[in-house]
Every structure is written in C-alpha cells, then in structure tokens.
C-alpha cells in the first residue's frame, strides 16, 4: 500500500513506538488519527503533525468505537490501523495478580481485537486496508523470568492476528504482526506491576524510530510478520 494520503489510526501514539510511527507516517503523507490516554501529549503531537487527536482508553469498548467514528467523521474512512497501545507486567508467575493480568489482557488483547473489529467493515467498504498488530519479541524467544503474564497476552494477540490475516485476505485487508525486540521507550517505566527485566550485558536496544520504519514497511508490503529479535536469541515460546 502506498502510504501518502491514507487514513491511519495509531493507538498508543503519546510516546515510544507509537509516537515515532506517527512522525514517519506524517512524513510519508498519511492522514493521521492518534489515540492514547494522555491528552496533553497526544494533542501536542497532533498539532505538530497536523493530525487528529482522540483521547482514548483502549480498554473501553465504547471509546474504541468513538475513536473509529471520529476517524470516519473527519476523513471519510480508515485505511490503516496500527494496533500499538500496550502495557507490560513483570513479576514471577507465583506473584501474578489476576486483576493485573486482566488489565493488560483488556488492553493488549481485547483492545486490539475490538479495534480490528471496528475498522474491518470500514476497510471492507473501501475495498481493503492494512492492520499491523504490535506484539512482542518475547513470544519469539525463551521468555525471561517474570515475563510470562505479558508474554501470554502477546501470544493471544499473535493468534488473533494470524487468524485475522487468513480470514480477511479475501477482503483485501492485509493483517501483519510485528515482534519488536527491546526498544528504548517508556515501556519499562510504566509497567502495570513489577520491574525489569534487567538489561542483558552487551544488548543494544532498538530505537523507536527503527521499529516505526519496520511498521511502515509492513503497511507498504502487507507481509505477514517482521521479527526484530536478533537471530541468535530466537527460539522457544509461542
Ligand atoms: N519497548 C519495548 O521494549 C517493547 C518490546 C516489544 C514490544 N513492545 C510493544 O510496543 C508497543 C508500544 O510500546 P512502547 O515501547 O512504545 O511503550 P510506551 O512508550 O510505554 O508506549 C505505550 C503507549 O501505549 C499507550 N497506552 C497504555 N495504556 C493505554 C490504554 N489503556 N489506552 C490507550 N493507550 C494506552 C500509552 O499512552 P497513554 O499512557 O497516554 O495512554 C503509550 O502511548 C506495546 O504494545 C508494547 O507491548 C515494546
């Protein structure tokens, strides 16, 4: 898909990978709809990029519907959804509180699913579209201790994303999954609970800008996936 002129919703656009994706997509000429909870940051970025900001808690089905409606009202449709909003949780399995797991499940899985469901009819009516689901490299490598709850949410997202790709292919909707590796962002400072993981010695994290470039490549190519985990660390898990 050529990005120039396309209507693109980016969730979790107030920081990190989402904000970086908004910047490269704006440079590529996309018409942007930015979603997150932090209104001030979202509106500042939207003003900088000439985008529409829609304050949205992606755990709330009503707010997700309002987000897609706002995009349709402003631009007449939606061509691209970047399902990027997400939160981590880093505690040993024995200490996982079900309410914490439920909260990140609501965001990382249900929010992404509801956003897909909300844009599918709109994309279908336009003859196609692109959805990129932002998973995690932790599902493509042996999970570090403490990451099981978070990895479980992303493994669920992987399954939904792969199913959506198969089910929507005939509608011209390309569904892609990206598996970022450790990336410099606010992610590790805003965990739902716990802390970590400790940085591995010698590990060089990706920049949010690198991940953003790969996300836009997935929109352009419609490829099934992009795995950013270094080859020598891959294996195990979902
Ligand atoms: N950083 C990494 O090492 C890494 C590695 C693999 C995968 N990922 C994935 O990459 C994605 C982006 O994370 P990031 O690294 O850019 O972290 P980040 O800087 O913490 O960004 C997370 C974004 O999600 C938004 N968000 C959180 N809770 C939300 C909610 N309830 N409703 C709507 N938006 C919400 C945040 O905005 P508000 O707080 O303003 O709502 C923020 O814009 C996530 O899905 C994460 O799981 C990150």
The secondary-structure element order is EHEHEHEHEHEHE
- Average predicted confidence as pLDDT: 96
Bin the strand percentage. 5-15%
Biggest sheet strand order reads 3-2-1-4-5-6-7
- Characterize the overall form: globular
Backbone CA Rg: 17 Å
Helix content: 40-55%
Ligand kinds = NADP nicotinamide-adenine-dinucleotide phosphate
- Which class best fits the helix and strand makeup? alpha/beta
Runs in which pLDDT lies below 50 for 5 or more consecutive residues are none
Tell me the major beta sheet. 7 strands, parallel
The number of helical elements comes to 6
**Strands, count:** 7
**How far from one another are the termini?**
29 Å
What does this structure look like?
The protein is of the alpha/beta class. The chain is 42% helix and 15% strand. The protein is built from six helices and seven strands; from the N terminus they run βαβαβαβαβαβαβ. It has helices at 16-27, 39-49, 61-75, 98-125, 148-168, 208-221, and strands spanning 7-11, 31-36, 52-55, 80-83, 129-134, 173-179, 225-227. Strands 3-2-1-4-5-6-7 form a seven-stranded parallel sheet, with helices on both faces. Helix 1 (16-27) crosses helix 6 (208-221). NADP nicotinamide-adenine-dinucleotide phosphate is lined by residues 11-18, 36-38, 56-59, 84-87, 107, 134, 136-137, 180, 182-183, 185-187, 190, 208. The site of NADP nicotinamide-adenine-dinucleotide phosphate has 31 residues, from helix 1.
